[in-house]
Write a structure and sequence with these properties.
This protein has 219 residues and is mostly helical. It is 63% helix and 8% strand.
Amino acid sequence: MFKKLLIVFVLVLVESKGAFAQTATDSAKVAVVPELSPKEQSKLQKKIRDSIWLLTHVPQKATRRSAIIPGWGQAYNREYWKIPLVYGVLGIPAATFVYNNSYYKKTRFAYEALFKAQSGDSSDIAAIDPELRGLSIGSMQNYRNAFRRDRDYSILWFLLAWGLQVVDATVFGHLRHFDVSNSLSMHIQPQLNPATRTPGLSLQFTVKEKSKKPLAIAR
């Protein structure tokens, strides 16, 4: 009995998804109106497609996707031009991590080899990187510590950049549902600070949420 109910539920879910997709497809089709030019028809169809996309857009999805894969949230918000910037910002700390980690391993090995040489074991001296030969054990220790520090900083900068692109996808995902056109109202009025008894200006922006109603479609 449970298996039958599960099969019925899956079938209903598939049918509902198909019906929604068909409705979205039909809504995107606009009948040719003789009074409108082809250019105006194209603009109207674009507005309808954007309206349908906005109805199905969920800002939380942009947050989750950018947290999983950098740039995925920006792609979900249709801000494709930001994707190269995201990977460019992430690529800088990634490259510095590779560089610093490589030289940290080299200087660490060289320092351990020089330390062993002081005890009479010079077996690892020949394996020191040619770029590091001739340095004293004190200088080698300083270089090792510096490369290790810079490597750790690269990890922190990478995590910070990752978090910033998640914040960007979240903020602009929410802004997609607000009217940011030139019709925004701005109100400026004088104001007196009661604590310091000094005059000032109060700046207020009025942002209205976009209507969730679909556009009327001419048939």
